[in-house]
Amino acid sequence: MPDLAERFDWDPLLAGVACVVHLAGVAHRGAAVSEAMYDLINHVAVADLAAAAVRAGVARVVFISSIGSQCGPSAEHVLSEADEPRPTTAYGRAKLAAEIALRASACPHTILRPVLIYGPDAPGNMRMLVRLAASRWPLPFGALTGRRSLLAIDNLIGAVEFAMHSPAARNETYVVADRDALTLPEIVRVLRAALARSPRLVPIPPWLFANALRLLGQGDLWRRLGGSLVADPGKLIEAGWRPAVDTRDGLAAMMRPVAPLSVQPAKPR
User: Fold this and answer.
1) Using CA atoms, how far apart are residues 61 and 66, in angstroms rounded to an integer?
2) Average pLDDT, the chain
3) Strands 172-176 and 109-114
4) pTM of the model
5) For labelling alongside 64, which of 47, 49, 85, 133 has CA 20 to 30 A away?
6) Do 138 and 147 form a contact (C-beta atoms < 8 A)?
């Protein structure tokens, strides 16, 4: 695969291709990647792909965007596709620009905006949360009440398959999320219960938590931990998609690979 950080000719790659699922990009890098590089990889490459897809007669491009193209790390109301996009990061702005370019290309497409994805070896914030839950430390999240929408990787795969084959999904944009939104304490309880551990959640007052993080220059982290981000997948469900994985079951299953190995007693000889 060519390097998306450099523009290249997509045409040879699309010869004879009926459908493209585009999910390549750069993420979870923060300020380590410049805004220009986010734009080149996450926007310009998509625009070039769309133009080439039109020339090749591709029947559908499914573009994996992000809820970050629509909002920042938290939202005061339940999000839907009807909301005006207001991204707050270079990553989100590049994803939104890619969506706009794809729509303008006249290429048949479906745009998916997933929320935080979980599953085996999930990166970013979910990886950090799994590591914290797998530890034996008390965690200071007990009093947090913000609710977060999550998305099981299997549910995302189901949404991609639906977008590839459903006539109803042509030229549509969908928020993609599990049905249920959980608080951070609820998520930790599920993760630790999967390891047969008590939650060990300390109820630190949210205002104290928020002030401490802001003093440390981590206001954005507070919005991710203490704020809510609930997304409504109703439009996609109404179109015919069905999330197969329940959030609590999916979170528990995710912890099985990180469960500590039990020591078996040696058999007597």
Assistant:
1) 16
2) 90
3) parallel
4) 0.90
5) 133
6) no
